[in-house]
Structure formats: structure tokens, C-alpha cells
Amino acid sequence: MIEITLLGTGSPLPDPHRAGPATLVRAGGKTFLVDAGRGVVMRAAAAGSGADQLTAVLLTHLHSDHLTDLGDLVTTRWITTFTPSPLLVVGPPGTRVVADGVLQSLSADIGYRTAHHVDLDGPPPLHVREVGPGVVWDDGDVIIRAGATDHRPVEPTLAFRIEYAGASVVIAGDTVPCEPLDLLCAGADALVITALRRDLLEPIPLPRLQDILDYHSSVEDAATTAARAGVSALVLTHYVPALVPGTEDEWRAIAAQHFSGRVELGDDLHRIEIG
């Protein structure tokens, strides 16, 4: 079984009820965090996990809303573990520069803590792996494959397919429909993907809002991707505009016009079991 928890279902627009983009995946005794939006450490705690329990952080891309709280993950893991435990961060090219910048921003704090705590004898240990399409994790139990997505002008961007015990889940992040995503999703049990309500955004005459329509999937796009790939369940997240309680059936009805499978969406901490 693979367990998916939507830690953060929000967007760059601050929402008191939704943390930034982040999805927790538990499989085979491992815990993977895909993206690290604002509030991720607090939401992980609410889900019964923590920075010290993560097997790896997987970054789909380097937009700020998907990694705002990477620094919180780094420091929280550092100060709550008592044996060397490097945090593995896997992401597209450019991830190392981001990680180095996070450590640089924490340089004062690192100095204070290493001066005060004798058992902290160096900066937070990070292991960064920059990856492209292909297998990025294989421990003989859990396999993770990365695939290219299309979020241009942001590039490169990735989706991750996590496989365990015959079950498979794809976490797509931000993207428009594209052939590499279809191939990565083929036959998967679930696809977790950003979704916009084009019908609600198109009438708003703000150029910046209109801009986001050309590099994210609408609900219709997400549903057609799931249908083409033969996915069993479609999990919508990173809602724009924010999902208003009581309107869930509207989102499901739009998806159902293009996809006949199970459609999941909900608030932060919504949990789905696959397999």
C-alpha cells in the first residue's frame, strides 16, 4: 500500500486554511516529501511525521511556493536528530544552488547553535542530488522514477512516479499536459496534480492571473491526462482559486466530464490509500 497525504493544497496566495504545495508519500516504511511549500513542517507534524523522519525531499521545480520552507526542514531535522542524518534533497538542475543559498541564509543561526551545543559540530548535513528523467531511487523495495513535465518558462521541471508492492503513484507538480507526463503516468494507480479552475480565472482581467493559465493544468487538463494514461484515481491539489468548502462537487463534475475514475480532492491533511 502507498499512502498519500496532501500536506499543503494552497497556492502562492496566502490562505489561512491551506499550506503551500507539499505532498507526503509513505511506502514500504519510507517517507518521501514532494515539494516544501509554506507551513510544511507544521502540516507534517499534524500528519504524524516530521523532518527527522523523512527519507528524502523530492522537488518538482524551483518556484518559490514549492520550496519556501526548505530552510525550516533543514534546521528542524538538524536540531531534532542526535546522530548524523543528512537530509537527501532530490530535484532538477539548480537544486544545489538553492540548497547552498538556504545554508547561507542560515549562517548566523548555524554559528549560534554550533557555539552553544557541543554535539552540533558543523552545519546541517545536506545531500543534494540533481536529476533528470530516469530512476532516481531504488532500494530494492521502493522505486522512484522522474519524468519531464512542461511548466515553461520554468525549466527543467519534474514529476515523480513512486512504485511499491505493485502500486504506483505519480506526483506531477505544476505542468500542462505533455507526452512525457503521459508516459510516466501510464497505468498508475493515482495521479496527484495541480488544478486550476479556468472558468473562474478567465473572467478576471488581471494580467498576472491570466499568465498562470498557460503553464498549469486546468481541472479539464488534469482529467484528460489521467484518462489518456489509464490512471485509476485523480487527486487534485494546489487549487487556484482556493477550493471553497461546499464546492467540491463542482470540481468533481468538471473532472468527470473527461475522466471516469475516482476523483479525490479536499483540505490539507486529506489522506488517500492506494493499493
From TrEMBL:
Top-level taxon: Bacteria
Domain Metallo-beta-lactamase, residue spans: 19-216
Keyword Chaperone carried by entry: no
Gene3D superfamilies: Ribonuclease Z/Hydroxyacylglutathione hydrolase-like (3.60.15.10)
Record's keyword terms, sorted: Endonuclease, Hydrolase, Nuclease
CDD domains the UniProt entry points to: arylsulfatase_AtsA-like_MBL-fold (cd07719)
InterPro entries found in the cross-reference section: AtsA-like_MBL-fold (IPR044094), Metallo-B-lactamas (IPR001279), RibonucZ/Hydroxyglut_hydro (IPR036866)
Keyword Hydrolase tagged: yes
Name the record gives this protein: Ribonuclease Z
